[in-house]
Amino acid sequence: MAGAAAKKAAAARQAASSTYQPIILVLNLIYAAIRTFVSPRPFTVRWEGLGLAVLMMMQYTAYKGILEHAASGTTASAKSSKSSELTGGKSLDVLGLALLLQYASILSLRFICWGIWVFPIWGVYQLYSTFKK
User: Fold this and answer.
1) Membrane-spanning regions, if any (predicted)?
2) Domain coverage including residue 116
3) How many CB atoms sit inside 10 A of residue 15's CB?
């Protein structure tokens, strides 16, 4: 039984990986192309590079969380066929927020400097909503 559950979890992890990995890769390549060819500002500010590194680490962590969520069996298909929950849970929210801040950094450096603070605020809100229930 344990072997079958492990195989099912590995298959769910592989399915989530084949779905989300190309999406994340394409979005990051589009960002790099816009930043390189369209944006008037090159990567010259040291803090901007640090902020982008933090956002990339957040994307990687969120991606790993999405894979673990898929493997845990708490996806919509495991709950019911009528549920509209996407595979990834809260990690998908973190990924979306990181990508939003990354693309907002094209417009202004202030988005990335101040936007990084959204993550701890969001985390405190999620912690509060968890214990509120």
Assistant:
1) 20-38, 100-125
2) 2-132
3) 16
